[in-house]
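**User:** Here is a favour to ask of a fellow structure person. Please take any protein you like and set down a full record of it. No explanation is needed for now; the record alone will do.

**Assistant:**
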Amino acid sequence: MPNSRRQPNIFATVLGSMLSYALLTQAAPSTIRRDTSSGAPYQGGATYTGPSGDPAPIAQIFPNYTSQYNTATGAVDFHTSQGLVYRSITDGGADITTLVTFELSTQYSSNWCQIAFTLEDAASWATGSLQAQLFTSLAPATTDASSWPSGNLRDQDLGSIDIVVGGEASFEAGSGPAAASDGFFPCSLIAGQVYGGEIVPQGDAVETSWPAGEDGIKIVVY
């Protein structure tokens, strides 16, 4: 379970972190993903103190879909069982990033949310630089693709994380407008909507893997 908000090792600021501005209407085949959001996207910029006191988390929300993207070919392996962030000096630029799709129920509209990234499952591991970057996506992945133009639709740079094997990643905030100083945000900002994001390798060599829906990126509800 992620640490309390008083600890620095919070995968902070991705209010949209993996959260994007686009609504995913369905996981149906599509050649080009388009922004289908029916409302104004959350732009961030506010500083939230989070819940008062030190409440215990009441829920962990994992991505609805975890997909892998090949930066060399533009291919998308949709709805995989494994998150993977990979880069090697011998891969010829064929980095692997992870695309995630979150949907937060309206039942949490009155709660506080927080983004966290952990490698606590026995099947999770990481080697190399132990670093990654976080971006929003203009729209979540919806289907397998063998090449562009589907792609990853990378958007805002939200910051970088220092991955902790067996624990929770620490976060260095980026300059994107969806950033928040402490990782907390009112769940009402995204409740009832679906957002996409991307985890990207950082450094010359890194490999990080986790079982999708069991570890890795998550939204913690308080």
Observations:
- Residues 83 and 113 are 22 Å apart (CA to CA).
- The radius of gyration is 16 Å.
- Residues 59-221 form a domain with the Jelly Rolls fold (CATH 2.60.120).
- Confidence is low (pLDDT under 50) at residues 1-44.
